[in-house]
Amino acid sequence: MRSAQCCVSVRMAARLLLRSATRAAVYSRRLVPSQAVIGRLASGGIPTDDEQATGLEKIVLKASKEGMDPYNILKPKEYAGSEQDPHIVPSITNKRIVGCVCEEDNTAVVWFWLHEGEAQRCPSCGAHYKLVPHELPH
């Protein structure tokens, strides 16, 4: 009886060992680096952001190289806020709500609607704002 139990446990151990060896062989084939990776590492190391970028990230990187800012990521240009040089507000629609902090140390924000067309004034401080059309790249 004891030899039968021993034989069963040996068979189970052999199956387990065979199964784990098979899995190890399958995983080792998956981890083999591709020729592109080997070539990249041989030619100079880690690829740049431009080489790795895809989709919208690639569009944004390309636009920034051309000096454009499609998603208003960069700090906007400073304007005087006068009638001749109004603050520019980009919008994908014909109106946009604008918040004006009239004084530098003020904690209250004056909100008002800005419509497409002529420059409009802030109802509190008189600074001028102008809505300009803006199109997203996608």
UniProtKB/TrEMBL annotation:
Keywords: Acetylation, Membrane, Metal-binding, Mitochondrion, Mitochondrion inner membrane, Transit peptide, Zinc. The keyword Oxidoreductase does not apply. The modification N6-acetyllysine is found at residues 77, 95, 130. The keyword Transmembrane helix does not apply. One of its GO terms (cellular component) is respiratory chain complex IV. InterPro entries: Cyt_c_oxidase_su5b, Cyt_c_oxidase_su5b_sf. Pfam families: COX5B (PF01215). This is Cytochrome c oxidase subunit 5B, mitochondrial. GO terms for molecular function: metal ion binding. One of its GO terms (biological process) is mitochondrial electron transport, cytochrome c to oxygen. It is found in: Mitochondrion inner membrane. Its main location: mitochondrion. SUPFAM superfamilies: Rubredoxin-like. Zn(2+) binds at residues 100, 102, 122, 125.
